[in-house]
Amino acid sequence: MKKGIILGIVGVLVLIGVWIVVSYNKLVSIREEVINAFSNIDVQLERRADLVPNLVNTVKGYVQHEDEAINKVTQAREKLLQADDVEEKSYANEQLSSAIDNIIVIAEAYPDLKASENFINLQDELAGTENRIATARRDYNNTAKEYNKKIKMFPGNLIAEVFDFDDVDYFGVEENKKEVPEVVFD
Fold first, then answer.
1. Taking a C-beta distance cutoff of 8 angstroms, is the pair 114, 107 a contact?
2. How far apart (Å, rounded) are the C-alpha atoms in residues 186 and 36?
3. How far is CA 47 from CA 27, 53, 127, in A?
4. Residue 70's CB: how many other CB atoms inside 10 A?
5. Which end of the chain is less crowded, N or C, counting CB atoms within 10 A of the terminal residue's CB?
6. In terms of Cα–Cα distance, which of 3, 94, 2, 9 is closest to 45?
7. Model-level pTM?
8. What torsion do the CA atoms of 7, 13, 14, 18 make, to the nearest 10 degrees?
9. In angstroms, how far apart are the furthest CA atoms of the chain?
10. Cα-to-chain-centroid distance, residue 145
11. What's the CA gap between 99 and 124, in Å, rounded?
């Protein structure tokens, strides 16, 4: 009789141990997916940052009086390259996007620049990269959501608490980018 009780207790302890190991490994696995997804964003941000000097040099060749806009792009690129975490990269990404958009708008006032094959190619490269960034950001945020859910929901929250699994930030969009622009025809 005592042997049966001891075997029962040992069996329950083994099941609990297996459950802890499996739960821990699932959390580690999804955390690694989050890290990988963030790395994919980083790769695309680097790709865009590498295109910026070519854009700046092309614009400089045609535009004489737009130093402020060119400097903003250069500064925003540097901030992006120096950003470390999700929040910093997200903010720096929005700043660089805004600065690049400003350069594109300025180009509209310079027909020679707008028609330049270099400028057109860079615009196409940047547009493609923006799409890749959007896809990588979406994938990261989906993975981050799954991870955050797993560490907050029972019973995963027990393992997350014991082994210090912290939730992760989402790669966000600035508040002013969430507003739908109003189109007015005069």
1. yes
2. 48
3. 30, 11, 12
4. 19
5. C
6. 94
7. 0.78
8. 160
9. 94
10. 13
11. 17
- Between CA 14 and CA 58 the distance in angstroms is 67
Q: Which residue has the tokens 């009086």?
A: 65
* φ, ψ dihedrals at 66, nearest 5°: -120, 40
* Domains of the chain from N-terminus onward: 20-172 (1.20.1440.20)
Cα separation of 57 and 15, whole Å? 64
Ordered per-residue pLDDT tens for the chain, 186 residues: 788 899 999 999 999 999 999 999 999 999 999 999 999 999 999 999 999 998 888 888 887 777 888 889 999 999 999 998 999 999 999 999 999 998 888 888 888 887 888 888 888 999 999 999 999 999 999 999 999 999 999 989 999 999 999 999 999 765 445 444 443 434
